[in-house]
Amino acid sequence: HLSHADQVEPDRPLSGGERLPLSVRVPRQPLIHARHLPAARQAQLREVLRRGAETLPTYGAVPAFTLTDHHNNTLTREQLVGHVWIADFIFTRCAGQCLAITSQMTLLQRELPQDIRLISVSVDPAHDTPTVLAAYAARVGAQKRWLFATGEPSVVTMLVRDGFHLAVEEQSDVPDEPIMHSVRLVLVDRQ
């Protein structure tokens, strides 16, 4: 089952008044840098995940899908059953919001228990091949549990719109942001 979680924006106050410390660096440097959160915020994130089914609304079941990850391996919904995972939707040539989304995933990779999977699905499968995604994953410091996936354009669009109930749309008239998409992270339970 999936639940939408509003994305926390960099430098936006969190509960308790602390700010999320994130910075984006220029290319050829590490792309994303996230410092540790205070212990109280770490505990709060773990508690949200532990009680997720009790506190977050359920939007339905994730449909069957077949994608290819940045290691050029097949990734299916069935492989993720039994694991809690967080999905986001990005593309590697995105000049704006994808950096903030990836910053959040970088933070989650660092702060959440190791058994929680992270899945970033490209909404630009024509450009984001497994090779391109592998280079991006290396730049952002993705560990083994964080996969970057791509697939047939119709499969990706169906998964985003019909499966996760999020927006995705091509914008050929906006060259800097050719794809408009949701910035929400989605928490998926073990079922």
How many separate helices? 6
Major beta sheet summary: 7 strands, mixed
Show unreliable segments: 5-36
**Assembly classification:** single chain
Please tally the β strands and state the result: 11
Overall pLDDT metric? 76
Helix content: 25-40%
Q: N-to-C SSE series?
A: EEEHHEEHEHEHEHEEE
Structural class: alpha+beta
Distance from N terminus to C terminus (CA atoms, Å) equals: 6 Å
Radius of gyration from CA coordinates:
16 Å
- Give the percentage of residues in beta strands: 15-25%
- Biggest sheet, strands in spatial order? 1-11-6-7-8-4-5
Overall geometry comes to: globular
Give a description of the structure.
- The chain contains six helices and eleven strands.
- The model is unreliable at 5-36 (pLDDT under 50).
- The chain has a seven-stranded mixed sheet, with helices on both faces. Strands 2-3 form a two-stranded antiparallel ribbon.
- The protein is α+β, with helices and mostly antiparallel strands.
- The chain has helices at 39-50, 52-55, 77-80, 97-111, 130-140, 153-163, and strands at residues 2-5, 22-24, 32-34, 66-69, 74-76, 85-90, 117-122, 146-150, 168-170, 179-181, 185-188.
